[in-house]
Amino acid sequence: MSACLQKCTLDSLGELVEISKKTFADAFEAANDPEDFRNYLDFAFDTVKLESELTNPNSDFYFVYQNGTLVGYFKLNQNDAQTDVGLPESMELERIYVLEPFQGQGIGEWILEAVKKIALTMGKEFIWLGVWQKNRAAITFYERHGFIKFGTHPYYIGKDKQTDWLMRVALDNLGCV
């Protein structure tokens, strides 16, 4: 697979807002209350909010391109930008999304490998993430890549309190070091 990463900058904010809303809606809109979902989408992927996240020195967004076409993106957090855990030896993979037409082509696996390399370069010992407990396909994907559940935390879509599984993978268990 021919893919490459491009770190997002303020110049790519509009494109980041667009792909964030599109991929999140494609993944979760049908499984949520329409009003709660619309309110969440407007809040979580607001231009001002994403600009704030994009300029946080402890967060990085990356676009993923395949043969010159934008196919997905991901967001990494460290230190105080992490939504949970917050250990200096950890890195949060807060968002990982691939546009629907490109799913099932190994792009998610390619992204995970890229994330591992970035985390190792930054001296991290493990990567963690939160995944909706009802998203069995994603949980199975992460388990296949060595992630294990270590806890839960609440995640709100509007007024709807949902539960995310917290999953982690130790980098030294991946043959990456």
From TrEMBL:
SUPFAM superfamilies recorded: Acyl-CoA N-acyltransferases (Nat)
Residues in N-acetyltransferase domain copies: 3-172
Transmembrane annotation, as ranges: none
UniProt superkingdom: Bacteria
GO molecular function: acyltransferase activity, transferring groups other than amino-acyl groups
Key word Transferase present: yes
Keywords tagged on the record: Acyltransferase, Transferase
InterPro entries referenced in this protein's UniProt entry, alphabetically: Acyl_CoA_acyltransferase, GNAT_dom, YpeA/RimI_acetyltransf
Official protein name in the record: GNAT family N-acetyltransferase
